[in-house]
Amino acid sequence: MAQMTMIEAIKDGMRVELERDENVLLFGEDVGHVGGVFRATEGLQKQFGEDRVFDTPLAESGIGGLALGLGVQGFRPIAEIQFIGFIFEAMDSICAQASRMRYRSGGKYNSPITFRTPFGGGVHAPELHTDSLEGLMMQTPGIKVVIPSNPYDAKGLLISAIRDNDPVFFMEHLKLYRSFRDEVPEGEYTVPIGKANVVREGSDVTIITYGNMVHTSLKAAEELEKQGVQAEVIDLRTLMPLDIDTIVQSVKKTNRAIVVQEAQKTSGAAAEIMAQINEKAILHLEAPVIRVTAPDTVVAFGQIEKEWLPNEKKVIAGVKEVINF
Amino acid sequence: MDKASYEVRTNKVELLSILSLDGTVNKELMPNLSDDQLRELMRRMVFTRTWDQRAISLQRQGRLGFYAPVSGQEASMVGSEFALNKEDFVCPGYRDMPQIVWHGLPMYQAFLYSKGHQHGGEVPEDVNVLMPQIIIGAQIVQSAGVAMGLKKRGKKNVVITYTGDGGSSQGDFYEGMNFAGAFKLPVIFVVQNNGYAISTPSSKQTAAETIAQKGLAAGIKSVQVDGMDVLAMYKAVQDAAERGRNGEGATLIEAITYRFGPHSMSGDDPTKYRTKDEESEWALKDPIVRFRKYLETKNLWSEDDEKNTIEDAKQTVADQIKKAESTAKMTIPDLIDSMFETTPPHLEEQKKAYLEKEGN
Ligand SMILES: Cc1ncc(C[n+]2csc(CCOP(=O)(O)OP(=O)(O)O)c2C)c(N)n1
Predict the structure, then answer these.
(1) CA-to-CA distance for A40 and A11, rounded, in angstroms?
(2) Which of B73, B130, B183, B351 is the 20 to 30 Å CA partner of B296?
(3) Do A59 and B339 touch (CB under 8 A)?
């Protein structure tokens, strides 16, 4: 098996699918000749030609509409939005159009589109480059939301996304692109969308999280172990559909849970997860579920990004809070 | 009837150029500028070039955050801003820091903005600018709104907004121009066509022969200008501003220019998409070299002037970065308090949690 960074694994996933299915197309701003601002698509245009892998003019609304139209024609577009904050320009295409294509056409058309976009803080990117907008997407009926936390999952989930007949919003955390390598099989394999992964077993508390916060939570769990607390850590991998069964199973075992997300506190993924735990497992709880998040402000890029983002210490404090309730 | 008379067509345009490569000027088109103003234009261009070089090295040292180099575009940036009044309004894109600093934003605030400090965006009361826009195209629709506001208030002022060749592909670009046309708004849209949107060449950006002609569809006056010629840029904006002030509506100016450096300091490598030949060809059009030749023949610029300006720029940048670096760091509670006029209870609660942690 090869050792790959997350960005290499993502590129490999696209390469495998471009090779397997000629209906797969890849496009976006700067993805062609130079291979993307993060080199996620480097070499793919060379391998598959400009017909399959191409640069678009600088217009996200155009990219979204193009993807939808190509989907109607039976293609399977992978549309890159260069940075997350630019999805607002494409919001109509993604959230109002692609997400309801199947419904509107009585099933005649669908939107087998993968929207890929980098997001996530801690890398000192400018404003509107790092926001965690998964909450907005989760609230849009008809679109799946996937956030991998490691190279193996990234490739497997991306292949699943490309093969999915419904639109998938695939978010790639900037900090994870090159932070470590992982064993990644060559060739095809899939990681199913909608299935969470228990990445650490424990009996005292469940930490439910995704993206880069998986790594923060795992570090916190190691530290907690030294203090005699066994934390179970769940990497959701997919936020929509949410694998509530895995969450409930774990909560039944540990009777305590916290949700950790990089996004702002109010009305996001964490709020939804807490609501569902409440609906499905309240009698198993020894303490209210709490969330560890960023505050409800714009993203503090630059100077105080580090203080703004949730970190290990805040996760540990959160766990203590539910344990000492 | 001409067999194609039902076909909408435009004629070939020639770009406005006043200063030739060897430093002679077209007297017929020469704008009315005093010797002092000519010297000031040169001073600002040389200053901007030095500031750009210093900013690049500060960025490399980790003392600045996001930075988009401007060298090559001095004529377009400095010349266009110079044709405005202080009361006119500037709506910049992310590369257009020089225009808003020359329009009055203190340089140390530009540095703070780059570093992600919110004080960078506290635009002083008497400075009519927006902060650089990250979302490409957003400033273009906004400028129509600012212009409508000025018009409704009966002001004789114009709004200038900038984007690149890439930006001219955004829906917002067409919407902004269309609004300006429909409402006859005093906006000057400047597209600085430097040939590339990050790595994507203009030829892949649009099949239109010129970007300038995109304004025709919106019913606004549209011109193409040599963006490496500070006199042509000055004149084009001066004419556009006059039209705007007289109630004649908006103008689109396509400035043909070049950025000598990378797209930004965040990992862009121009050697991946540009050739050395192309770079040296554009170096011949360097706006500073050309204008210097002209001023020297008129005895308006000397080696000493150049040296002094560079020294002054270096010193100013050093002072201003020091001022930025000694500005108190922003805090999470400050950030929380800047979300609403009156901080609502849930944010007060979040603020309290931070204050308690900072206290211990
Ligand atoms: C809405 C939006 N999409 C994409 C980007 C990412 N991006 C930043 S600069 C740039 C290229 C801009 O090119 P151009 O408009 O020609 O301006 P230049 O930098 O060449 O002056 C891109 C794609 C962005 N900032 N905003």
Answers:
(1) 5
(2) B73
(3) no
Q: Is the minimum distance from the CB of B192 to ligand 1 under 6 angstroms?
A: yes
For residue A266, the one-letter residue type is T
* B42-96 pLDDT tens trace: 999 999 999 999 999 999 999 999 999 999 999 999 999 999 999 999 999 999 9
Burial annotation A109-121 (CB, 10 A radius, 16+ → b, else e):
bbbbbbbbbbbbb
Tell me how many degrees the CA angle A192-A196-A202 measures, rounded to the nearest 5: 145
Apex A180 CA angle, A177 and A185, nearest 5: 90
Cβ contacts (< 8 Å) between A89 and chain B: which residues? 135, 137, 170-172
CA of A28 to the centre of ligand 1 (A): 12
Distance separating alpha carbons of residues B236 and B239, to the nearest angstrom: 5
The reported pTM is 0.96
ipTM: 0.94
Q: Give the list of residues 6+ apart from residue B3 with CB closer than 8 angstroms, or none.
A: none
Classified as helix, coil or strand, B66 is coil
Yes or no, beta carbons of A300 and B116 under 8 Å apart: yes
Q: How buried is A223 (Cβ within 10 angstroms: 0-12 exposed, 13-18 middle, 19+ buried)?
A: middle
Residue type (1 letter), A43: G
Beta-carbon contacts of A224 under 8 Å, excluding residues fewer than 6 positions away, are A230, A231, A316, A319
What single-letter DSSP state applies at residue B131? P
The pLDDT tens digits for A67-92 are 999 999 999 999 999 999 999 999 99
pLDDT in tens, A260-315: 999 999 999 999 999 999 999 999 999 999 999 999 999 998 889 999 999 999 99
